[in-house]
Each structure stands twice: as structure tokens, then as C-alpha cells.
Amino acid sequence: MDIDLMLRNWSLTFQYSKQFTQLGCTADLITGLHAEPLTESRLKNLVCDIKPVTMSIKNYVITEVKANMAGYKATDACLNRVRQFYNSRPFVVPAQRVEIWPFPTSATLTKKRTSQNIPLSHVTDFCLLFPKDARATTCFENPCYQNIQRTTCGCNFPDMPMNTLDQQFFQLQLNASNLNLLFEATDEFEDALTTPRNTATRRLNPHTDLTSFSITLQCERNSNGALTFDGLDTQNQNTSVELRGAPIYQGATDSYYNVDTSGKRPPHPILYTVHDTFWLFSPTAGGSCIYDTNHSFDVVIGLLSD
């Protein structure tokens, strides 16, 4: 018997999942299997004994850290030439700052519409996450929404409302994450963007991990085939940021609104704003370092060129 296939096709009374569960959150654990008589013809139904558990870590030790880094080999002569060049010149190291803004309201049975007033300072990207538990930090699922769109500063992002499962949305996310040319997306990331979680009549239990979902919306302008690093900037004045959308399938099969079979509802969606910032290094006065969060890339380069 294919137990995995049977569990994936089970009824709504039990949602079998092979997904990651956030540490500190509650998950269903299968503690036993037993057969119960189903009919007088001696057919039997296989029943799971299920108990909720909360996974936690009391102690851990990091024994090894590895990193695979690709780059260009530089000779000692090249490095010395770079040092000499910057002995009398300032240089810029681009960086990014991420700020977290939870929306004030959660999804309802039929729609999601929420907004907040926040300042925008050279925001290059908006990232949207849809946690199913307030303790979630790395495990986020596709809400399976349609007509989803974010509006701020009189502009819609993206230009047209999107469905979080269609091909256009998938390509948009690959482009926003620079995964459309040299770098390839992982299977988990692709599955999270393309795998439906429900139909009009039933929920679909996942057989792969689908907890790598996020929405990235690029705000930088395209200019002459290259990006102009300006982003959205409101001069530290609050502006409205609105998020709206609706489930593709409403009701009992909505896997985002119905977090579990006990009536649990999702917390507020989260907005991450990504800002351009810069480290300015200068050899003057014995050396200085300034972390600039107030100017765009073009302005910073212009100041150094003067």
C-alpha cells in the first residue's frame, strides 16, 4: 500500500504535510496507526493517532561553518595597485537596510485589504510575507491569492493585479530575485511559487516542502537598459501603503485563512522594505567611515566626484 499517496488524498479531517514546521510552533505528529472495521464485509479503514506537538531547542553547539564563494582571483600586484589607488581617493561600498512593518489587520474569509502609513527612504524593493503563526521567522507559505496588488505613492505594484500561482507571477518573482539568467532557483522555491494548495472542493496536502514563499516587488526604475538607483522616497514623511487581494478559493478549502482544523486564523501579513544605503570610506584625516542612509546612489557618487 502506498501510505504516502493515501495520506495525501485524505479528507479534510486531517491535513498530512511533509513541510517544515517553524521551531516553537505547533505541528501534528502521527503517534500511531490502527485499523478500524468499516463495513460488514470486513473492509477496514486505516486511522492515524495524531497529537499536537511543539518543537523547541534547549541547547545547541555550532561545530562547523562553510561558505562557497565565487569570485575573481587577484594577484598580489593587483591588490597593491588597488591599495595605492585608494590611498588618496574615497570609495563607496553599496549596502542595504531592511525594515519590518506588520500590517495592522489580518485576512478575512473573503478578502484581504489592509493599509498602513510609513515613511519611505530610497526603497528599492517591497517584500511581502504571509505567516500562519506569529512565531514564524523562516517558514512562509503561498496564500494562494488572486487580484493581489500593493499601492503606494499613487502607483500600483505590480502594474496589474496578480495571481500567486500563475506563470506571469512566477516569472516576476524570478526576475525580482535575479534568478532568471545565471543563477537558478531551488526546487523548494519553485514549488512554493507554483504548487496549488486547494481546489474549490478540497485542500491539497503537500508532498514537498512549500515553506519558501515570499513576494518581492521591485520599485527601481528601468533606464536605458540599466537600473536607476533611486527607489521610492518620501523625505521621511508618512505615506499610505495598501495591500489587497482575495483567495482563489474561498471557504473551508482556503489553506491560508484556515490555518488548521481547530479554527486558527493567520496573523497579520508582514511588509519588508529594502533601502539603498552606502558605506563611505575616505583616507582623509587618518581615515574615516560614514554610513549614509539619506542619499541615493547617484547623489553619493556625485558628491565623491566633485
The CATH class name of the largest domain reads Mainly Beta
Cα radius of gyration in angstroms: 25 Å
The name of the CATH topology of the largest domain is: Adenovirus Type 2 Hexon, domain 4
Roughly how many Å apart are the termini? 75 Å
Note the total helix count: 5
| Order of helix and strand elements from N to C terminus | HEEHEEEEEHHEEEEEEH
Name of the CATH architecture of the largest domain: Distorted Sandwich
Multimeric state: single chain
- Give the overall shape, derived from the CA principal axes: globular
Q: Characterize the biggest β-sheet.
A: 5 strands, antiparallel
Supply the helix-strand structural class: alpha+beta
Give the beta-strand count.
13
Number of domains in the coordinates?
2
What's the rounded overall pLDDT mean? 82
Q: Report the β-strand fraction as a percent range.
A: 25-35%
Report low-confidence residues grouped into runs of 5 or more: 8-13
Helix percent band: 10-25%
Kindly describe this structure.
The chain has 306 residues and is an alpha+beta fold. It folds into two domains: 3-54, no CATH class; 93-279, Adenovirus Type 2 Hexon, domain 4 (Distorted Sandwich), CATH 2.70.9. The chain has five helices and 13 strands. Strands 3, 5, 8, 12 and 13 form a five-stranded antiparallel beta sheet that branches. A four-stranded antiparallel beta sheet has the order 4-11-6-7, with no helix packed on it. A two-stranded antiparallel ribbon has the order 1-2. It is globular.
